[in-house]
Q: What sequence folds into this?
């Protein structure tokens, strides 16, 4: 509730906090898996919640997210 931040091109942002504080929810809002109940999530000036599927997929191709346990192949060294 009441979250506001801006990440400019070339910047790196880390979301850090205790379990249950909303880190995953924020990432899902940014990625368009969730739609904000109020306010806006803007990506390059466009509201993520109002994008159609093609626009959302194009926006996602320009994003990068790294999760704490993000290994794609856990059985490889």
A:
């Amino acid at each position: 509730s009441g979250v506001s931040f801006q990440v400019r091109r070339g910047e790196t942002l880390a979301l850090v906090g205790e379990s249950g504080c909303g880190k995953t929810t924020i990432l899902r809002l940014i990625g368009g898996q969730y739609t904000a109940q109020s306010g806006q999530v803007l990506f390059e000036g466009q509201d993520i919640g109002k994008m159609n599927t093609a626009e959302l997929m194009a926006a996602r191709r320009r994003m990068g997210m790294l999760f704490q346990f993000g290994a794609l192949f856990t059985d490889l060294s």
